[in-house]
Design brief:
alpha+beta, 18-stranded mixed beta sheet, 18 strands, about 40% strand, globular, Phenazine_PhzF-like
Length: about 300
């Protein structure tokens, strides 16, 4: 009988039980979609990553698929960090660049070994930015989140940004207001069907730490995630959103910042975001993070 090897990894942190937990199935070859969905539901993390061995394609090292407790999603930042961190631990990898096949394409992931630990840098999918919502949809989104137009940060349009798994970007003025949010999850779920996007990333520049540009919270009840602790597929697209909307200054066609998330639910973590810019538009988005192992086990 094949042994299914599972890790639980906390991403975007070096402290256990903080950051964003993800399950990782190291050897997913042979598992059916039903098997993977059942495992993801049992582990009950926001996402579980399933690593499949390389195919005959010499350009691919691994294939990775991602499941929430309820559905498969095309990509996941923190679960990619977790998956490659777990694989590095399991195989005692040295620093290297691996190419992973996902539902949004083949992505390079850098594994950096430092002091017997690892940092993982993921190149995300192509950045896209949808037109800003009109006042009617914006008002519905704000109402579902418990916000008013007066709470919005000036010059921050409410719109969908994506590097493979889209999020609605909502910039607000106050970190205190951010931490007080109690969204109407049913209303957000209904809106998700209407706008074709299941994640709502509320962020603010209201920071008292020079190393942290933004603080954020991310809600995605339509895919079974009331609140995600630290979201790579929100902070990454946020970088592209800030550049394309000319909300930040940068030099030499390169913008980098740190985003913090998860404080309100006591799972704080930090995502380092790097954006390469071409003619004023985001050309490539990378996210970098630490991780820490919680447990390793075998599925009986």
């Amino acid at each position: 009988m094949k042994k299914i090897l599972i890790y639980q990894i906390d991403s975007f942190t070096t402290e256990k039980f903080k950051g964003n937990p993800a399950g990782v199935v190291i050897n997913a070859d042979g598992l059916s979609d039903e098997n993977m969905q059942a495992i993801a539901k049992e582990l009950n993390n926001s996402e579980t990553a399933f690593i499949f061995s390389s195919t005959n394609n010499p350009d691919i090292d691994y294939t990775i698929r991602y499941f929430t407790p309820s559905i498969e999603v095309p990509s996941c930042g923190h679960a990619t960090i977790a998956a490659l961190y777990a694989k590095a631990l399991e195989d005692n990898l040295n620093s290297c660049i691996l190419r992973i096949s996902t539902k949004i394409g083949i992505l390079p992931v850098e594994v950096e070994k430092t002091d017997h630990d690892y940092q993982i840098t993921m190149t995300q999918g192509a950045f896209t930015l949808s037109p800003a919502f009109g006042d009617m949809i914006t008002e519905q989104i704000l109402s579902a989140l418990g916000l008013n137009f007066s709470d919005l940060e000036e010059n921050c349009p409410v719109q969908i940004a994506s590097t493979g798994h889209s999020k609605v970007m909502i910039g607000i003025k106050s970190r205190k207001k951010l931490n007080q949010l109690h969204p109407d999850m049913i209303s957000l779920m209904k809106l998700s069907n209407e706008i074709g996007c299941n994640g709502y990333f509320v962020f603010t520049f209201d920071s008292d730490d020079e190393n942290i540009l933004t603080y954020g919270r991310m809600f995605a009840p339509a895919i079974g995630i009331a609140e995600d602790p630290v979201t790579g597929n929100a902070n990454g697209p946020l970088g592209g959103y800030l550049v394309q909307n000319k909300l930040v200054n940068y030099e030499n066609d390169y913008f980098e910042f740190n985003g913090r998330q998860g404080e309100q639910i006591n799972r704080p973590g930090m995502v380092n975001v790097k954006v390469t810019v071409n003619n004023g538009l985001p050309e490539q988005v990378k996210i970098k993070g630490n991780a820490v192992p919680i447990f390793k086990t075998t599925l009986l």
